[in-house]
Structure formats: C-alpha cells, structure tokens
Amino acid sequence: MKAVTVIPGVPESLRLRDVPKPSPRRGQVLLKPLMVGVCGTDKEIIEGKYGKAPEGSDYLILGHEALAEVAELGDGVDNVSVGDLVVPTVRRPVNCDLPVDYCPVGKYVEHGIWGLHGHAAEYSVTDAAYLVKVPKEIVDIAVLTEPLSVVEKGVELGVTAYQSRLGRRPETALVLGAGPVGLLATMVLRLMGLSVTAVATRPPDSLKAKLAREIGATYVDAAHEKLAGTYDLVVEATGATSVALEGLARLGPGGVEVLLGVYPPGGRLEDAGSLLTDAVLNNKLVVGSVNAGLRHFDAALRHLKEAKDKFGDWPKRLITKTADLDNYQEAYSWTHEDIKTVLVLQHI
Ligand SMILES: [Zn+2]
Question: What's the per-residue H, E or C state across 128-173?
Fold first, then answer.
C-alpha cells in the first residue's frame, strides 16, 4: 500500500513509499483513512527536527490528524463496527498511569509523530479504545477534530480555572494567532458566548481576519495596531515567546493564559520583575497544555456540529487546500494565507 513517510531526523526525506499493509492485533482495528490534516508538527518532522520511527522501522508514516472508516476489526473489539466513521486520538501511554494526555515525555508514543505509524496511508491500525465515532453530518469537517481537541482541553483548563477562583464565568477572551488553532479557539469561545478579540499579523482584508470577524470576533492586526485592555482569558497560539509574554501582561484580575504553542529556546524579557509582580498582585495564572483526552475529542465533535449549524460553511473554509495521495507534496506545503491543508486519501 502507499504511505507518506519520512526518515525521522533526516531533513527533506518526505516521500511516498510502498509499504506492507498492516493488520490489526487483538483490541485493534484496521482503518481506511479518508482525510489527514497537516500541521506545524508535521512540518517539524519533515524538517528533521522532531519525530521517531516505530521500533524496528527506519521510516515513520506521517499523519496524526485523521478521519477514517473502520475497515476490519481485530479480536475482542465491540465498541465500533466495520463502516463506522471515526477519529483516532493520537497518544498511547507507555508504562504511565496518568491520564494519557498528561503522560510525560518518554512515557508515551504518538501516531504519526513519535514511535507509532500515522494515518497518511491507504490503511493504518490503532487501538479501538481510542476511537471517537463521527456523526455523518460533519464528515466534511471532522478532519478538524484532532486540532480542535487540543483547543478544547486548553479552553476547558482556562474556563475551569477562572470560574473556580472567581466564582463567575469568563466573559472576555484574547486569542493570539489566527492559524488553525487560533481560529478554532475563536470559534469555541464564540460558541460559548464570550466576547473575543483575535490577534494576528495578517492584514484586515485577509481571509484569516475575515473569518474571525464573521463569527463575531474583533480582529486586531498586530503588525499595525497595539493591543490594549485586559481580558479574563488569553489563548496563546502563535508559538512566539514575545507574544506569549504580552499575553500575560494583557490578563485582567484572576485571568488565565493558556499556552498552546511550542516556544523556541532563548528569548529576552526587558522587565521581568514588573510582569511577575503584576501577575502576583492580580492573581494571574499561566497554564501550558498539550495533546488531549477522549472527552476533548467528544467536545470537539459537539462543537463542530454546533458550529456548522450556527455558522454554516465557516468550519469548512478553514480547509484552504486539499491534495490527493498522488500530489501529496501539495498538502505538505503552504503559504501564510493557508489555514489547514488536508491530504485526501479517499473521496467521500
Ligand atoms: Zn497536528
């Protein structure tokens, strides 16, 4: 079967390979992937900066953001049926008894990223216990479930922490970044009824700015406008250290900043003392969040359905480019105007 592969650690080793079709072991299912989303993590793996092949393999099949059809059941599987549409979660624990999304580095493997093959292939296998079933109505956008699950976990952390400390729900949010994660965070927070300001460095007439405004957010072009005011919640989705620190400064009393980026080493802070004292005097909280559990995938599916009902084709417009397996390289290259690029393995 055909699969999109890399040799981890080797830059520009992305290629289509003919590899053996996998078969499901006990408790597993064989999946026929329909769509696979591509993100910054794939980019890092392709650049040779991250990623690990499974034991005994010299290559890694990419693809952690998948929508798939169940093609075959391994022994002992009774929670899904052949033909079901599903989204698999990414991470599996290795000798870790914490919730899987809280397992530390070294105590997990991840499909398409770290030690497990992914779904950018004609077939893949995964554990049946880590599947969520997709309602047919949202099959066209369900490939967004995995990136949205990461947002759901971050937003849940932020909202719960704010509410438990201040005894009321947050009302205002600042979302830093208008890539897929930033726009999905804007969507979830708008669905929850918060007043949202979305910030990016794209011009006001860009698609990203338009999409943010269309669902009722205020858009700020940070290249030309300075941020002002304070917010109950800040969701950081740029991965830029200076932006994350600015986010902390923009929190109001009891505010919570959720960091969803990965920040480059180094970076400088001119006045750390004032920023930290302000954090103390205003009871500010900063929380990092990575990966997501099954309940966040369920929340993501609920919000995708709600967003489609309320905002029409808005979620689908986040998918700015699709490519077939034969043109797979197209899905792994994007411009600043692209939001989510998707590899289409089976046309629905
Ligand atoms: Zn991703």
Answer: HHHEEECCHHHCCCHHHHHHHHHHHHHHHHHHHHHHHHHCCCCCEE
334 has pLDDT over 90: no
Domains of the chain: 2-141+316-344 (3.90.180.10), 148-288 (3.40.50.720)
C-alpha 62 – ligand 1 centre gap (Å): 11
d(CA 63, ligand 1 centre) in Å: 8
Tokens matching residue 152: 């759901």
pLDDT confidence bin for 267, thresholds 50/70/90 = confident
Q: What does the alpha-carbon distance between residue 248 and residue 329 come to, in Å, rounded to a whole number?
A: 38
Alpha carbon of 272 to ligand 1 centroid (Å):
32
Q: Which two tokens stand for residue 195?
A: 């007043």
Mean pLDDT across the stretch 288-316?
98
- pLDDT (tens digit, 9 = 90+) per residue, 272-290? 999 999 999 999 999 999 9
